[in-house]
Amino acid sequence: MLYDLFNYLDQLDFPGAGMFKYVSVRSGMALILSLFISTAIGRKIIDKLQMLQIGETVRNLGLEGQMNKKGTPTMGGVIIIIAILIPVLLCSRLNNIYLILMLVTTLWLGCIGFMDDYIKVFLKNKEGLHGRFKIIGQVGLGLIVGLVLYLSPNAVIRENREVLNKDNTVEHVRIHPEVTKSTKTTIPFLKNNNFDYAYLVKWTGPYQEEATWIVFVLVVIFIVTAVSNSANLTDGLDGLATGSSAIIGIALGILAYMSAHAEFASFLNIMFIPGAEELVVFAAAFFGATVGFLWYNSYPAQVFMGDTGSLMLGGIIAVFSIIIRKELLIPILCGVFFAESLSVMLQVAYFKYTKKKYGTGKRIFKMTPLHHHFQKAGNAGIDAVIQRPYNIVPESKIVVRFWLIGIILAVITIVTLKMR
Length: 420
What we know:
The chain has one domain (2-158, 195-331). The protein is mostly helical. Helix 6 packs across helix 12 and helix 7 packs parallel to helix 15. It is built from 15 helices and four strands. It is globular, with a radius of gyration of 23 Å. Helices cover 59% and strands 4% of the residues.
């Protein structure tokens, strides 16, 4: 909105109006505005939630400080959604296809999470929205994103091509001048930094192009569903999911900025994505909204985001990564989310296996998701084997340590683009 206004003022030679054309200026404004909105409206929304008695229902699982959370307002993800949408609508170019996809993702998963929280809080159904409906919603979003990237004429890239010396070493990377529809993505650690989904369906012969896009859409659906649910699992300690998402948001913003500039893309040997610069504005608003929410969500939390926030944050990270063709970096960048999900899958699989084989189920971790393992008294897995005395780690220390791991993983993610 403001972009069009300042563009009009610039045509009238209004002093300073031309600054709004720069992504850096608009990203800075979005960041400041999202921080202000999330902290300003956060208190009012928390008070409103308390007045409506929208409090968290807590089961006693024997975790330190767990029962102190009972009655804490939930559904606070609404704060993050508002703090993202308003700055993005004001500071970005709304005709950008990638930005439209991010707005759809925010509202789509925000609504699914809101329905889940509403059923839990107002209808007093602890199960919330049935799992199959969540999956249908996530699959639907993945289908929309995949098909838009396939069908939209504006969702294109300019390929990075290596120019080799006589000794077959890379002299420099040239960004191809022509735009193209492509199913290529960035893959770390390899000399040629691209991976094409077409490699997976070479056997389809004359139908390879169609089969490639089908595979691409299926991959998008899987990533959106997996990352969204992983973020949901991570949301179990005060500030854990919020802070981790903010760190990931910074890394994604940097990657989007690099992908939107031919010189930087050439330096990193990644594809150039025209129009991706608007995603930097979104990333700035995303970071500001999560940090602003952390003002109230840090230990001891005054509000929880609920599924309204956690499903939405994971979906945003997934779709953002797919758009800038960095989805194969997700296991590194979202390592905290990945570890949380993996701990649950390993725990369930091992318990079922040992129960079937020995008649009694055994556990690898004291409790999952992983962050609860450090809160739970007792021994399990390797601690039990070596007879290590259990040690309960304070919640705030667990969160900060996970943040530090997230920062390290974010740095590694960016560094991998120069590691061949």
